[in-house]
Design goal:
The structure holds two protein chains of two kinds. By secondary structure, chain A is mainly alpha-helical. Chain A folds into three domains: 29 residues; 161 residues, no CATH class; 34 residues, no CATH class. Chain A starts with 7 loop residues before the first helix and ends with a helix. Chain A contains 15 helices and one strand; from the N terminus they run ααααααβααααααααα. Chain B has four domains: 344 residues, Alpha-Beta Plaits (2-Layer Sandwich); 53 residues, N-terminal domain of TfIIb (Single Sheet); 214 residues, Rossmann fold (3-Layer(aba) Sandwich), CATH 3.40.50.740; 158 residues, Barwin-like endoglucanases (Beta Barrel). Chain B has 34 helices and 41 strands. A seven-stranded mixed sheet of chain B has the order 7-6-18-17-16-8-9, sandwiched between helices. In chain B, strands 27-21-26-23-25-24-28 form a seven-stranded mixed sheet. A four-stranded parallel sheet of chain B has the order 13-12-11-14. Chain B is globular. Chain B starts with a helix and ends in a 7-residue tail after the last strand. In chain B, 56% of the residues are buried. Chains A and B meet through α1, β1, α7 and α15 of A and β2 and α32 of B.
């Protein structure tokens, strides 16, 4: 009797048997990889916007403070996206004919808002508060990436929960005082914005500041820095355990 | 469970303890008292509707299929692509706005014309929450449930959106528009001074509206302005005229009263000043160690109300017997106004004891009469208060608050007669819904057909709009400027927070159109007051008024009044008798009032105090009368132990069960009219009488209110609009299913309510702790080993009771920061539901609909349990309220059973609920002894099931959500969070200011709303905080403390102050 199956069927059978077990694992890993990749999280991906706004131009080249536009960042949960009025405070005088600014002028004229695509977003069940982070001297770039270098704005970090908890469980590794703060006693809040002035002026930055300016989120503080951090944690009255309680962010 | 532990739990000890527990001293419903099989079954079903299918056998194959499918789906739902969202900034941002921080404006809510000052919270221009204005005399920072819920009307998708003519869409102005026709009609009316013109409004206190009306009357001198509302105060006005020959406004000062006698007055709930009165009343009942004095309240009531339940003594009598009591009391006090012999329901002992107590508190007592009582009772009460020396002390009189304080019903009847005879050519109805709530013998709807030109301006297209030629959409009070007076005359400017959402026009707009007055509502209010307060400082004065929400110096001054000399003989000549027939009482509903809140889902679903009925009205009847009238059989009622029980039904889930007494449909026949409705047996209701509530049976209310309940107005006649005798009750063989939450979430017969008389409290204030069966049930959060090891029966034991049994490992959290706790004083809790409503508004709690409530799925985080005491079902020894929400236990039973750690302990002692982790096993709820967890069986917030009204997906309803609280989806558990969003906000603020959170800085939504300041929240790690001090009171106790859960929320036991002569 002729053989029904060719010899290579053995291999196929073996491979498919193994494959049955490997494929789902691969599928799951693959899918979770995709969800965590910039293809989904949009980290490093500049979204299309009605106006190609450059943070680099406005911060580094012109030296405009973050708070000029993001007015509520030190007062409120929300940093605030500026109203058209804020744009027009300068652009009614300069670049008044720029075609790139057409949507802004149209908005002001017609009293219709400029609709931006949201870049940085936490889920609806997460209640993030900008003001308390800024008031503790946590730099914008710690979460948002190298904003002062962004020609087009993109997301600096994926904002996943584990990433938030890295800080919330180890605040001493992330709270710091800049040398200016130690010397002249500027508040932690001022230290946040001071970094951009220093960056613009080309002042030499400490390793931590350099890491922040570069938008890295994996700076490993020295033992000394950690000790200083611990002191600050104590000084600010930060209760580390409370900081990781669910209800701090979820309610 | 390991062997060691199971051995160490001494089953004999448990049995002994259970045997000694105060079994059925307190009970919640007649079904519970009778311990029927059906009720036990109901209790066992934590989630009744879902547990049925699971009782069927599931075979292995089916099980694997289900598990496989759910696993696959669970995995898939974890992966998703991030949503793409937009940011829409302002073009011009308002100057005072900080994005993300709500702004608060002072405004005012009116009911029956009377204002209650509010602070309205606005998130980026959308009002989301109303709170009381601490500077306003009628609020003092608290808010009634009704005022709280009024914000929902603003966003109601059923609101009227455009002008209609004969039901067809039309326009406000332009060709063929409303204004064109109005002008033509006015032109016709002008030459003869408006003889055919009538303006019909509800009660008006607004000074600016009054000016406009006066202007209108000047331009059309023959026109008439009529006020009419269904729940009016005609009898009080008539009583005032009878007593003083003038109309005066009576203000009660309960803060100065030692003895209060309420003659069928629900002064804690349904007066214009009730929120204030409740506060004044409660301030005299805060019994603390070392200051154990308290006032005493007697209530003589025709139907149970929160006032009668709160009273130290209450006497349920028929409405006609209230007058009998009043007359007997007067003659006992030496005022002979003619009296008739007492009936069996009005014991002589009572009259004498009350009179004696009143006399001993001369000048420090209050007698108050219900608005619905006949004018003669009001007059008599004025005389009693004068003779007791209360006038000028606990009772002051002022000029009337209302613009035109007339008796409304006679004027309204004249209007209807004129309409019928064709004298009325143009009728302008501003607000109200007279077609619905007119009395049975005042045929307003028929008369309306004779009026050639009629307008109805209102928030909804309702029954009246359907019968007028024109309907104009009205504005919500948060959409336009106005002003109004409070119970003491204080003026508040009603500030809008938002532009009208639709084409709404205000009353002011409409009148301005008729008198050709230019300008906006703001101009009108502003100019009107500028004219009142001439001088240069007006703008500052105006700003201050807007800022504070009250206009300084506008409270009416006390006024000296004198009784008519011939009052008593005049009263004696008023014919009076107590008929033997069955009586019927008509009362405004405590949630939907006269029907104005019918389409308000929050109000509709809010369980009514005492009966905890929701979504319906019913015919309230006492158990004895139900038997007497043959509604339930005689064989159903007696039990060997002498108590009464009644046949009950399981019809909540089986509509084919007709053997029930409760919910049986009966036919009420009165003076040739009849009405059908289900009965609800209410212990402690007056015998030989029934009570029905107004506001239901609407035919054009909207999605929520249409067709709910029956319209009691169909039995009301103008000679007996509040109570009538001669009622006949016919019994049908049908039942109508009612939704009550009284059966839900029952903590079976345990020692739940602790109660003592104040005299006993003075002797031994420690009683609740003595009763406590648990050992080491300390509320000290810093104590690390509250109880000994499981089974360690002696450790820390006190009181000679048995041992602590803990199901938990005994390890406690250590707290080095704040420790949040709450205290609720059962003595001052009046069961008014304000907290329940405030919680709903603050925490985005959805409305689930009648069907879901019937299934026990109501979502309110706070419930007000009501308990009856004693074995007698007809006359329990008392009724008790207890607000129950998440206890935030130190040893929370819910936490260890959650398989996904979705409910965990915080380091500040909160029992946190993490919605995004919850997978909906419901184990936590099964394990919660307090039954305070609520499960989203559907996506209620998105209108499931069946397009339910709690629809946060609806474009207009979306606006009401509190942005600081997650809107929960289907399949997650939720419960009281101690308003964690407010805690977090205060924590962040304090940290930014480098300080600790101050005591009283965090006010939970329920605490904020509470009229009696019964709820106190704070840091119990701070020995100086108010809450710690309350927890240190001797009568502080933990609910179900013997379970060793050690709740963070504890209660102060109920203290009563009975008269020894009546005990």
């Amino acid at each position: 009797m002729a053989q029904i199956f060719h010899r290579r069927s053995n291999t196929i059978a073996l491979v498919s048997l193994v494959g049955v077990f490997i494929a789902p694992v691969g599928l799951i890993l693959g899918m979770s990889g995709i969800t965590r990749s910039p293809a989904n999280t949009n980290v490093g991906v500049a979204l299309d916007q009605p106006v190609p706004f450059s943070h680099e131009h406005h911060i580094t080249e012109l030296g405009i403070d973050c708070r000029y536009c993001h007015t509520s960042v030190e007062k409120s949960a929300s940093a605030g996206v500026p109203p058209t009025q804020t744009c027009m405070s300068c652009h009614s005088q300069i670049w008044t004919n720029s075609p790139l600014l057409m949507p802004v002028r149209a908005s002001y004229k017609n009293n219709t808002p400029v609709v931006w695509n949201q870049i940085n977003k936490v889920p609806e069940f997460v209640y993030f508060n900008h003001s308390i982070h800024v008031n503790r001297g946590i730099n914008c770039n710690r979460c948002h990436g190298p904003v002062q270098k962004m020609m087009l704005t993109y997301k600096g970090n994926p904002f996943q929960m584990r990433w938030c908890l890295d800080c919330h469980r180890n605040p001493e590794k992330n709270i710091y005082q800049s040398s200016e703060a130690k010397k002249s006693g500027i508040s932690p809040r001022e230290q946040v914005f001071d970094l951009y002035w220093k960056y613009q002026a080309g002042t030499k930055l400490s390793p931590r500041e350099q890491s922040l300016a570069d938008g890295f989120d994996d700076y490993a503080p020295s033992q000394e820095e950690v000790k200083e951090g611990e002191k600050l944690v104590e000084h600010y009255g930060v209760k580390t355990k409370q900081l990781a309680d669910c209800s701090i962010c979820h309610r | 469970m390991d062997n060691g532990r199971s051995e160490s739990i001494n089953s004999a000890a448990i049995k002994k303890r259970l045997d000694s527990a105060k079994g059925k001293e307190f009970w919640r419903s007649i079904e519970e008292l009778a311990e029927t099989e059906q009720f036990k079954q109901y209790l066992e079903d934590e989630f009744p509707q879902q547990s049925r299918p699971l009782r069927q056998e599931v075979d292995r194959r089916q099980f694997l299929t289900l598990m496989g499918a759910s696993l696959a789906l669970a995995g898939l739902s974890g992966c998703r692509f991030l949503p793409k969202d937009k940011i829409v900034p302002y073009v011009n941002m308002p100057e005072e706005l900080v994005l993300g921080i709500p702004l608060t404006y002072a405004t005012a809510f009116t009911l029956g014309g009377y204002a209650m000052g509010l602070l309205a919270e606005s998130h980026e221009g959308r009002p989301t929450k109303l709170e009381g204005n601490p500077q306003h005399p009628a609020s003092l920072g608290a808010i009634s449930a009704m005022a709280q819920a009024s914000i929902l009307d603003l966003y109601d998708p059923d609101r009227s959106v455009n002008v209609t003519h004969m039901g067809d869409p039309s326009n406000w102005d332009g060709a063929g528009s409303f204004l064109e026709e109005l002008q033509a009609v006015l032109l016709k009316q002008k030459p003869h001074g408006g003889t055919g013109m009538r303006i019909l409004t509800e009660t008006v206190t607004s000074p600016t509206l009054a000016k406009q009306l006066a202007q209108l009357m000047k331009q059309y001198p023959a026109a008439k302005w009529i006020q009419y509302e269904s729940v009016n105060r005609d009898n009080a006005i008539a009583g005032s005229k009878m007593a003083f020959s003038e109309v005066v406004n009576t203000i009660h000062h309960f803060d100065k009263a030692d003895v209060i006698v309420s003659l069928d007055s629900d002064f804690l709930m349904n007066l214009p000043a009730s929120v204030r009165y409740a506060r004044d009343f409660a301030d005299r009942r805060r019994v603390r160690k070392g200051s154990a004095g308290m006032n005493r309240l007697y209530s003589i009531e025709s139907t149970p109300t929160i006032t009668s339940v709160t009273a130290d003594h209450h006497l349920p009598v028929k409405a006609s017997e209230v007058e009998l009591f009043a007359r007997a009391l007067a003659s006992e006090l030496g005022l002979n106004a003619g009296s008739t012999p007492l009936t069996s329901a009005v014991p002589d002992k009572w009259v004498k004891a009350v009179a004696k107590d009143l006399k001993s508190a001369s000048g420090k007592s209050v007698v108050i009469s219900g608005d619905h009582l006949p004018a003669s009772v009001h007059a008599l009460v004025h005389a009693i208060n004068a003779s007791l020396g209360n006038a000028g002390q606990t009772i002051t009189y002022t000029a009337p608050v209302e613009v035109d304080p007339t008796e409304q019903l006679p004027a309204f009847k004249t209007l209807v007669d004129e309409m019928k005879s064709g004298q009325v050519e143009a009728l302008v109805i501003l607000g109200g819904n007279p077609v619905y709530y007119t009395l049975a013998d005042v045929p307003f709807a028929i008369a309306l057909k004779q009026v050639p030109f009629s307008i109805h301006l209102s928030l909804y297209q309702d029954e009246t709009s359907a019968l007028t030629n024109w309907h104009v959409p009205g504005t919500h009070f948060l959409e336009t400027w106005s002003d109004a007076r409070a119970y003491d005359g204080t003026v508040s400017v009603i500030q809008p927070l938002i532009q009208p959402l639709y084409e709404g026009k205000s009353f002011h707009d409409m009148l301005a159109m008729m008198i050709s007055e230019p300008g906006s509502d703001f101009d009108r209010i502003h100019e009107s007051w500028k004219a009142e307060k001439p001088g240069t400082g007006f703008e500052n004065f105006w700003e201050k008024t807007l800022n504070e929400g009250v206009m300084a110096g506008t409270a009416l001054p006390a006024k000296l009044v004198s009784l008519r000399a011939d009052l008593l003989p005049a009263l004696a000549s008023v014919p009076f008798s107590v008929p033997a027939q069955v009586e019927i009482n008509f009362r405004p509903d405590v949630t939907i009032h006269d029907g104005r809140n019918s389409n308000n889902g929050w109000m509709m679903e809010l369980p009514k105090p005492i009966t905890r009925l929701s979504w319906d009205n019913a015919i309230y009847i006492s158990p004895k009368t139900a038997v007497d009238l043959g509604i339930c059989k005689a064989s159903d009622i007696s039990k060997p132990d002498g108590g009464l029980s009644l046949a009950t039904n399981d019809s909540h889930f089986d509509e084919h069960d007709y053997n029930s007494a409760n919910e049986r449909v009966v036919v009420l026949k009165l003076k040739g009219r009849s009405l059908e409705g289900p009965i609800w047996i209410v212990p402690d209701h007056a015998d030989n009488a029934v009570t029905v509530h107004l506001g239901f049976g609407r035919t054009k209310a909207g999605k929520v209110g249409t067709g709910v309940g029956f319209n009691a107005n169909l039995l009301r006649t103008s000679d007996a609009s509040w109570s009538a005798s001669g009622l006949e009750v016919g019994i049908t063989d049908r039942t109508s299913i009612l939704a009550t939450t009284q059966f839900h979430h029952t903590m079976e017969g345990r020692d739940i309510i602790r109660m003592r008389d104040v005299s006993e409290f003075q002797k031994s204030p420690e009683f609740p702790k003595e009763e406590e069966d648990v050992v080491g049930s300390t509320n000290d959060p810093t104590q690390t080993a509250g109880h000994g090891e499981p089974g360690d029966f002696g450790a820390g034991g006190k009181l000679g009771h048995e041992a602590p049994i803990s199901l938990y490992d005994g390890k406690d959290f250590k707290y080095d920061g704040y420790a949040w706790g709450m205290s609720i004083d059962l003595t001052t809790c009046i069961g008014c539901n304000a907290c329940v409503q405030a919680c709903q508004a603050e925490n985005n709690i959805p409305v689930v609909g009648k069907d879901q409530v019937k299934r026990g799925r109501d979502m309110h985080w706070i419930r007000i349990d009501s308990y009856y005491k004693g074995p007698n079902v007809n006359r329990p020894e008392g009724t008790f309220f207890q607000a129950v929400m998440c206890m935030h236990c130190e040893q929370a039973p819910c936490e260890p059973v959650c398989p996904v750690a979705a409910t965990v302990h915080s380091h500040e002692g909160l029992n946190q609920m993490v919605y995004n982790r919850c997978v909906g096993t419901k184990y936590c709820s099964n394990n919660c002894p307090y039954k305070v967890r609520r499960f989203n069986f559907y996506k209620y917030t998105a209108g499931q099931p069946d397009n339910a009204p709690g629809n946060y997906d609806n474009p207009s309803m979306k606006l009401i959500a509190n942005p600081n609280v997650t809107v929960r989806g289907r399949g997650v558990m939720e419960k009281c969070s101690f308003c964690v969003q407010r805690i977090n906000a205060a924590r962040i603020t304090s940290k930014k200011e480098n300080r600790q959170i101050r005591d009283g800085e965090i006010v939970t939504a329920c605490q904020q709303a509470c009229p009696t300041q019964t709820i106190v929240f704070g840091n119990i790690a701070d020995p100086e905080s108010k809450v710690t001090k309350l927890k240190g009171e001797p009568h502080d106790y933990s609910l179900l403390g013997d379970l060793g859960t050690r709740p963070r929320l504890t209660y102060l036991a109920k203290i009563r102050n009975p008269n020894p002569e009546l005990v």
